[in-house]
Structures are given as C-alpha cells and as structure tokens.
Design brief:
471 residues, mainly alpha, disordered N terminus, transmembrane, membrane
C-alpha cells in the first residue's frame, strides 16, 4: 500500500468538517456516555460467552444433537457479520441514539424469547434476532468512542474498551457456570435483561452527531451479506461438504467483486470500501482481521490442545485462558498511554510478536513444563494482543474524516467479527482434516495468523502514511 490521494483527501475533508463537530464531549458528559458504552460491551460479551458455555446443557435439555447445537453460535456470528456495515450506514441517516435504542429493545425481546424457547428452531430464530440487536449496537461502538473522546484521549478510551472486554471475558465463563449450577440454562439469557434496561435509560447520554442523507443501496447490502456470509459458510463446510463449500466460496468472491465495483462509484457507500484507500485504514483493517483470527483460533483450539496434550482439567484450562484475558486487561491501559508516543506499526509489531511467541512457547512445551510456565506463556500472548489492539483501533478511527466515524466504526467491528469467524472456521477446517492432530494444528493456525499480522505491520512500518497523527 502506498500513500495516495485518498490520504490527502481525507485530511481535507476532516479539516473542512471539523468546525461542526466538537472534539469529544465535555466533562462530566464524557464519562456518562463512556459508562453507557462500557455497559454495552459488558452485556454483549457476557451474552456471547455465557451462551456458549450453556450449549451442552441446552443440547441435553432440548434433545438437540451436538452437531446441530453448534449452529446456534454459528448462526449468531453470521447474522452479526452480515449486517454490521449496512447498519452502520443506517445509523448515519436515523441517528446514533435511535439505532442504539432499537438495538437494545430488540436485544431485550430476543433475550426473553431465547430464555423461553422450547425447541431448537425457536431458540435458533431468537438468537438470530438477538444477533441483529447486537449488530445494531456493535456497529455504533467505534463511532461512539470516536465522538466521546478528544483525539488526544482516544487511546485512553480505546484501552478502557479493551480492558472492559478482557475482564468481561474472564468473568463471563465463571458466572455462566455459576448460573448453570444454580438454575436453568434459560437464566443465561434472562440475566442480561436488567442490565440492558439500565443501558436503555442511559441512551440519552450518548452524543448525537449530525445526521446525513445518503442513498441507501439495497443491492450493496445484499452483496455485503452474501460476501461475508458465503465466505464464512464456505470455510465451515470445506471438510464436510467440499462441493457446497467451493460453491459458497466462489459465490462470495463474485459477490465481493460486484460489491466493490458498485461501492467505488459512490461518494459515501453503504459498504465503505472507499475508506480502504486511506493508507492507515487499509493496514489497520488487514492487521485486525488476522490478529482477531489468531485470537479466536487460539481460544477455540487451546482447550482441546491442553486436554489432549497435557490432560488438563477444565479448571486448569479456565486458568490458562483466563491468563490470556488478564494479559489483555493489564496491557490495555499501558498501550493507551503509549499510543501517542510510539508509532502504531511498532506497537503492533511488538504486540503480534508477543502473541506469536506465547503460542509458540505453548507448542514447544507440549506435555512438559509446569502449569506456571503455561500460565506465563498464555499471559505473554494476552499481553501481546492487548498491546496490538488499542493502537490499531486508534489508527483506523482517526484515519477517517469525523463525519465518517460511524462507517469506520462499522468497518472496525466487521473486521473484528469477520476475523473471529475466519479463525473459528480455520479450526473447523483443521479439526476436520485430522481428528488426532487437529488441536495441535489449530494452535499452529493461530500462530500463523499472528505471524501474518506481524508481516502486515512490518509493511506498515515502512509506510509513514499508515500512522496518522491527529491532535
């Protein structure tokens, strides 16, 4: 990628548009809005993680075959990734607060429906609707944080988000298991409702940027859904139904081609591929996809790996995975402090290497080494991931004109979810290829994705235009 006219154009648009936008919210409005945003992060993380913890109990209670019950999280992820970018465009027209309110209400209703479900079909439908509500919230997160904090504090805001997600990821499995011990799996879904109602009351504290009238391109939305949905579905089916998988992947490629061609002719397209022309954004999106693919592949493969290679108990596995999240939580505020003093590329290189070295350490140890050494390796991987996340997200968000903050936020969320879905699909692929070596190959896949992300960031380091400095 090279410095292009798009970078200069972005700077001009930012400069001309900035007088109509405040540089962040004043105190104490800033922290009120931040509290609402952080609560949304907690709710969405808890919902996703605790529902996955409950899958075995759900399968048993509703008499669902384990091979079918996995479609509950798969359908959820597909619904989110297929709708993120179109919904971020919707927010520009109807307003951030209104879409946030709709998303929260839909999430609440669908949570209650999921908790009351008495069949696989009803539960699956409820989770898809719940994913739609989640997508309405997630597509706004990047734009909201961009408008809450002044540019000089954006790294701090992003580090708070990362730390909140990391801590929630540590607590959610334990709280989910605790709920399952005390009550029915249905309370996994009911438990988020009171917090969602509190969030609904706090929507008035969110900043409402000026709305923009844009042409809503229905065909671009359809092509976007086909591109993301068929690509993930194709990877999922690659080992079990290769013919169908090939058709899905070809369909995804064709849809992507027409989507890009259509979007490039528009001034502010529904699918903001024009933002990828901005050097800092292009690198940030690519690095994000592979880093989150590495993270998710590791989270899915490592429990099987530790169980197979080290005969680890579920308690031990919980501690190992928790060490990763603790590493992210500890490093997030440090990365937030350093993000305006050290180049984005260098921080992301160090972070990607930290993740890769930690995963390589786990593979080299195999069945050897004490649990403490494994904890340190997982902690190192988490620290690396935490060191990457904040500066990369900042580069993506500040690299675009402020009026396009919602589009950038949608792209950030789409890159994250697509990367996580891609990582999960990679694990399904290697597990299907080899039942005995699947867990080890899964960790290797996570390591390779981390190294690819490092390669992207090395290329970024040699391109000064990839590191936006906005004061």
């Amino acid at each position: 990628m090279t410095h292009s006219a798009a970078d200069s154009h972005a700077a001009e648009v930012t400069s001309s548009a900035s007088p109509s936008y405040e540089d962040g919210l004043p105190m104490p409005a800033r922290w009120r809005a931040a509290a609402v945003l952080l609560l949304a992060f907690v709710i969405t993380v808890f919902d996703a993680v605790m529902s996955n913890v409950a899958l075995p109990r759900i399968a048993e209670n509703l008499s669902i075959d384990p091979s079918r019950v996995v479609w509950i999280p798969i359908a959820y992820s597909l619904a989110v990734v297929m709708t993120l970018l179109p919904l971020s465009a919707v927010s520009v027209q109807i307003g951030v607060r209104r879409l946030f309110a709709w998303g929260t209400v839909i999430f609440i209703v669908a949570s209650i429906a999921a908790g009351l479900a008495n069949s696989f079909a009803v539960l699956l439908a409820a989770r898809v609707v719940q994913a739609l509500g989640t997508s309405m919230l997630m597509c706004l997160f990047g734009g909201i944080v961009r408008n809450i904090y002044p540019a000089r504090l954006l790294g701090v805001g992003l580090s708070l988000n990362a730390m909140t997600v990391a801590i929630s990821s540590v607590l959610a499995p334990s709280l989910g298991a605790f709920l399952l011990d005390l009550a029915s799996w249905r309370w996994i879904f009911f438990s988020t409702v009171p917090f969602s109602l509190v969030m609904l009351l706090g929507i008035r504290y969110l900043h409402e940027p000026p709305r923009q009238r844009i042409h809503f391109d229905v065909w671009a939305c359809i092509l976007n859904a086909l591109t993301f949905g068929l690509s993930i579905l194709g990877l999922d089916l690659l080992t079990t139904r290769p013919v169908w998988a090939s058709l899905c992947l070809v369909g995804a490629a064709v849809s992507a081609h027409f989507m890009v061609q259509r979007s490039l002719t528009q001034k502010a397209p529904i699918v903001p591929v024009d933002l990828l022309k901005i050097t800092s954004v292009g690198y940030a999106v690519l690095a994000s996809v592979f880093s989150f693919a590495s993270q998710m592949a590791a989270m899915v493969a490592l429990p099987f790996y530790f169980q197979q290679v080290r005969s680890a108990s579920f308690t031990d596995i919980g501690f190992y995975l928790g060490a990763w999240s603790i590493g992210v939580a500890v490093m997030a505020p440090v990365a937030g402090y350093l993000t305006r003093q050290v180049s984005v590329a260098m921080m992301c290189i160090v972070g990607g290497l930290g993740t890769a070295v930690g995963l390589a350490w786990v593979l080299l140890l195999g069945a050897e080494g004490s649990p403490l050494i494994i904890l340190l390796a997982m902690l190192l991987s988490g620290i690396g991931f935490g060191f990457f996340q904040t500066p990369n997200n900042r580069a993506l968000l500040v690299g675009v004109p402020r009026p396009r903050a919602n589009a950038a936020g949608g792209m950030q969320a789409a890159a994250r979810v697509f990367g996580q879905s891609f990582g999960t699909a990679l694990i399904a692929l290697v597990f299907g290829a080899s039942a005995t070596q699947g867990p080890t190959l899964g960790v290797v896949a996570a390591l390779v994705c981390a190294l690819v992300a490092v390669g992207v960031n090395i290329a970024r380091h040699f391109n000064p235009a990839s590191d936006p400095q906005i004061s």
